[in-house]
Amino acid sequence: MAAGNPRLPNFILLDAATRISDLRNGTATAWALTTAGLTIQVSLVVAAPPRLSHFCVCCPGRDATAFADAPRVVCSTGDHALIRAGFTTGDSPQHFIYRARGPDGRPSLDLIPDLIDYYSRQEILSLPLGFVSSRDHLVIAALSYGPTDLQYYLHTLSSEPRSTWSKKLLLVELPHGLSKKPFVIDHSKVIALGGGLLGWIDLWEGILICDVLDPGMAPLRLVPMPKLLPSNRQLCDQQSLARAVRDVTFSRGYIRCVELEELVELRVRTVPPLPDPSDMDELQDSECTIDPPQEDGEEYVTVGWRLITWYRALTWNCWRKGIMVHSDELGTVSLPQLGGGGACGLKLPLKDLRVAAPILCSDGDAVYLASALHERDPPAWIVAVDTRRKSVEELMPYSAKGLYLYDPTYIPYVLTEYLNDKADGAQVQTQNACHHTPRNFDGSEKKRQRLSHTEYEV
């Protein structure tokens, strides 16, 4: 980051697609060892949202052929990001945890041993993991639901040497008024709730909250999601569309939820009456054909959209309404130029854009939306909406061709204050810095190396 730039954002939109590049930065680079003994290097390139941030990944001293394909970010919890990488050594894909602030205050990268094998043995289908930092070690947590015994299980792994996966049966405490029948959470996201608390989120059904550091202290608690807005109720049987309309985050002691709803009107299509030949003095040959039968009809037409936010403290038994924003309140926008030209300079009411996949900023009132001109188009812009001011803050080209509007590739990621403490709005670079030894969960090490780092622009 060059001198004079503003402080780094505490919240970013992280592209799930990484870049294979040997980019090193003194405040954002970390290393680990693969199972084959290769060093893998990961650097975070930060951009203020709605621009996308991304990871640069490489095996120092080797070219891109070391990877079977480009590594990807699978999920994030707080400032922990799970990166999956496949190598040409023939091993199974391996998973690494990147932390913006590791145990020694610097970024860290850790290999999770036997993750795929353990998931296979335990018949765990959903990959999203939660991460909790406890003193000088990290605890990884997964949640599973037994289809035969209809029970929830917590799976944990500590980063302490020689640790192995453990499995614990959990009891679920349902809120008053909910049925005692099995309540299945098909979670797609995990959020950190402070201390040892993690929340596994099913955007349709609810949030299962558990203290993973001491799961025996209390049962698994269920927080039901807010009731769906009217136009979204028909979508709730399609789990793949949940992200298209909802997001949940945690900040400032509150769980916060945002929901996007397309607004539709039922319009009656009327057909004008056919002319009566007896009223005409002359019939042209072209008018003598038989008119096809026509019928009146009804159709639903999209006329805009709205956003609504909800919030609740961990101890509450209700959601409270936050802010509601209607697309009519956001006025007209000018669409920035895409890479290939396209809609350069086009101005239109924001309500005429198709928007989806809201992401709620964890430390403010901004909501980020994927947008396109038409529903079937790939997402072309990311729109930043300030819900409190009811204004469009920024609209940035995204142009992810071949991708789905309702499930874009980026995910939320929370940076700690560490990077800002180091950057402090000034130049970020370290020349000939000596960094910690790459260390994996199994305790293996790589000989300490002296590495030179270069400056980069955020």
Automatic annotation (TrEMBL):
Residues 442-458 have a biased composition (Basic and acidic residues). Transmembrane segments: none annotated. InterPro entries: DUF1618. It comes from the Eukaryota. Residues 200-368 form the DUF1618 domain. Residues 429-458 are annotated as: Disordered. This is DUF1618 domain-containing protein. The lineage of its organism: Eukaryota, Viridiplantae, Streptophyta, Embryophyta, Tracheophyta. The gene is LOC125554344.
